[in-house]
Amino acid sequence: MAHVLVGYELGAGHGHMHRLLPVVRALEARGHRVTFFLRNIKENAVLLARERRAILAVPDLVERIPGAPTPAPIATYSDIMAHSGFFRRQTLHAGLLAWRTLLDQAKPDLVVADHSPALLLACFKQVPVVQVADGFTLPPAEADEFPTYRQGRKAMIPPAHVLRVMRDVQKHHRRPQPQTVTEPFRTAGRLVCTLPELDPYAPLRRDPVIGPVEGLQAPQPLPASSVNGGRPHFFAYLSLEHEKTRPFLKGLKACGLSGEIFARGMNDKVAKSLARPGLVVHREPQPMQEVIARSSLIIHHGGNGTCCAALSGGRPQVLLPTHMEARLSADALVRLKLGRLLLSGDLEGDKLPEILEQTAADAAMAERAVARAREIETRGTQKTVETILDTCLRVLEDRQEK
User: Fold this and answer.
1) Sorting pLDDT into bands at 50, 70 and 90, what band is 64?
2) CA-CA distance, 94 to 110, in Å (whole number)?
3) Which of 250, 243, 304 is nearest to 276 (CA)?
4) Of 78, 199, 348, 395, which one is least surrounded by beta carbons within 10 A?
5) How far apart are CA 101 and CA 195, in angstroms?
6) Which domains does the chain have, with CATH numbers?
């Protein structure tokens, strides 16, 4: 029986938890002992209340770089690293002290990591790692530097500076020093859990793209209410934590579409303010398969899991992104003519109701969405969890042989 650490160091929301918990259960079903690690315990309190396993709180190294604008113009993964402990030697030194203490106490045989740059450095040439992440948080690492998310953009923080910090701290700890900023990311396994359509590095990708852990939806025809002149029906999955959500909800209430909404953080006051004929406010998450079956349009913040579900289920999307990863997914869907991106200006005045109604009435976009879903289906079943488990077992076997 091996001991496996599974978790993530960076990121908000529930996406990382939903991606990794099936992996945890698959490893445990094979008899391995698993310890979960994560950054935002409070945010995941409801999900964690159902768990009965060991959980580690990990060091939070996120910091603001002096003089950098807010939000920072992130261009590469090394910029994310710079804002997550790799800009100052003192911060990274303290973070690695914490990580190595955790590793010394846990003594894992394997680490399964999602978006965990400091942990990867702590494990570098010491503990085998399998990375399980979406395309944004698992950039190609074959070159000496990470590629940019968008052509024409340069790294805000020189990768050479990030590498110097990494090497200096590793030297101080008497640990192996990477030769490039990307070297610690060339781990024993690198599995990209998304659809190729949403991978921002698709032209450069050499790693296997194995699909979302949550699985894909079966393509579904548009509901009868939205064809042959019928009224479209939307489903909105949002979060009240984001500043763009409340002005968006005002426009959503004012539009003439029927629909449903679930928003994380919903309370009685907001639910009451949304009351109007044809709009249903849910207080609990709804099964995505059922949502897609009864909806002709999915509105959300651009999370990878929701994008994959709507894309594979055959539904156009309206996206209100709140961070760069979601914006890149929104841009990809817009390029494919499968979605509409909402900018801050679209939330002003009376613009939003018209935009939503026009998008919902776009029959060509709806037909493209269904056609794309059928194309995705022809690629065959993606056994994502099985692929991750097989990779982990192979790495454990290789470790035992050594």
Assistant:
1) confident
2) 23
3) 250
4) 348
5) 36
6) 3-212+382-401 (3.40.50.2000), 224-378 (3.40.50.2000)
Give the tens place of pLDDT for each residue, 200-244. Answer: 999 999 999 999 998 899 999 888 655 545 678 999 999 988 888
What's the pTM value of the predicted model, to 2 decimals?
0.90
Give the CB-side neighbour count of residue 220, counting CA atoms within 13 A: 23
Return the pLDDT at 230. 60
Tokens 């919902």 found at: 360
Among candidate residues 214, 239, 9, the one with its CA nearest the CA of residue 103: 9
Tokens representing residue 187 in the block: 């781990």
CA distances (Å), origin 47, targets 16, 21, 116, 382, 389: 12, 10, 21, 26, 22
For residues 114 and 15, is the Cβ–Cβ distance under 8 A? no
3-state SS assignment for residue 110: strand
Contact 380, 210 (CB under 8 A): no
The whole-angstrom separation of Cα 217 and Cα 203 is 25
Q: How far apart are CA 232 and CA 238, in angstroms?
A: 19
Non-local CB neighbours of 349 within 8 Å, separated by 6+ positions? none
Residue-wise pLDDT tens digits, 92-144: 999 999 999 999 999 999 999 999 999 999 999 999 999 999 999 999 999 99
